[in-house]
Write a structure and sequence with these properties.
Blueprint: H1 3-10, H2 13-25, E1 33-36, H3 40-50, E2 56-60, H4 61-71, H5 91-96, E3 100-106, E4 112-120, E5 123-131, E6 135-145
Helix pairs in contact: 2-4
Length: 151
């Protein structure tokens, strides 16, 4: 079983995330909102960082288009690696089994932005979530690879 298959087995929503991303990459992006399970560890860290309970994490077709536009091509210019649809399978792992998490600022509405990182093999995945007090939206997702990669 390869890495993505193992992720899909552990996180069934990973298949939906990959399908959403493939649709966006192919120019087909119906309105979609995918919510997924959150770990007790994520709940506890979210409470610690924001003072709020978290009930759900989600991604939309709009967020996926943003990720494709910002991180789907020419990432080498920024020392990163292009995100592909298959990478979206890793989002639940990055958020639920993160290596690091930190508050990185606030959005225009005053909602806190939280940055998660997770190293998988030689790739470091980073995801930012933001939104209201109990629901968080994945706003961006990118990756870096190789020795000396830092977050």
């Amino acid at each position: 079983m390869n890495g993505i298959d193992a992720i899909k087995q552990a996180y069934p929503e990973a298949t939906l995330l990959v399908d959403l991303a493939r649709n966006v990459w192919d120019g087909r992006s119906p309105t979609v909102k995918i919510e997924f399970a959150i770990s007790d560890r994520l709940k506890a860290e979210f409470l610690n960082l924001t003072g709020n309970d978290i009930q759900a994490v989600f991604i939309t077709d709009s967020g996926t288009r943003h990720i494709k536009k910002q991180h789907g091509h020419e990432e080498a210019l920024r020392g990163q690696v292009d995100i592909t649809p298959d990478d979206f399978a890793f989002i639940p792992l990055v958020l639920n089994e993160f290596d690091t998490v930190e508050h990185t600022g606030e959005d225009k509405r005053g909602n806190k932005k939280i940055l998660f990182t997770k190293k998988i093999s030689e790739t470091i995945y980073l995801a930012t979530i933001e939104r209201g007090p109990s629901k968080m939206e994945i706003r961006t997702f990118w990756k870096m690879r190789g020795p000396g990669a830092s977050c």
